[in-house]
Automatic annotation (TrEMBL):
Belongs to the Fur family. The lineage of its organism: Bacteria, Bacillati, Actinomycetota, Actinomycetes, Micrococcales. The keyword DNA-binding applies. InterPro entries: FUR, Fur_C, WH-like_DNA-bd_sf, WH_DNA-bd_sf. Fe cation binds at residue 108. This is Nickel uptake regulator, Fur family. Zn(2+) binds at residues 93, 96, 133, 136.
């Protein structure tokens, strides 16, 4: 995947800088990482310091190339993940805040119902479904 990203960058007159590579590596090593999580991971990776604005610009560049994607789990900052790991639905517990995931196929009935009733084609991989995890549901 990294070679493909490098080729896409070069086609646009850009390149895979060490900074972008460090940001991509941080996203790859973290699950559902906020931009602040990525900034912290890059700060602790042993490389030279990067300004938060550099990390944000790298995330934007990597997303525009299709290398990373983001999801809004709630009203806070988006969370980033590798684009090839984007084919899932986020499940956020309202009780404990835990974030789980299920396959996109698990939400196909919902997507089909929305399409039939409204004509809207839902992209559930860019959203989160809020509810209660099995542990919190038992306590209710």
């Amino acid at each position: 995947m990294v070679q493909d990203i490098g080729a896409k960058l070069r086609a646009q007159g850009r390149r895979m800088t060490p900074q972008r590579q460090r940001v991509l590596d941080a996203v790859a090593s973290l699950a559902h990482a906020t931009p602040d999580d990525v900034v912290a991971a890059v700060a602790g990776d042993g490389g030279p310091p990067l300004a938060p604005s550099t990390v944000y610009r790298a995330l934007d560049a990597l997303e525009s190339l299709g290398a990373v994607g983001h999801t809004h789990l709630d009203h806070r900052a988006p969370t980033y993940h590798l684009a090839d790991h984007a084919d899932h639905v986020h499940l956020v517990c309202r009780g404990c805040g835990r974030v789980d995931q299920c396959t996109r196929e698990a939400a196909e009935e919902f997507v089909g119902n929305v399409l039939r009733s409204t004509g809207f084609v839902a992209d559930v991989t860019h959203m989160a479904i809020h509810g209660w995890c099995s542990e919190c549901a038992r306590q209710q």
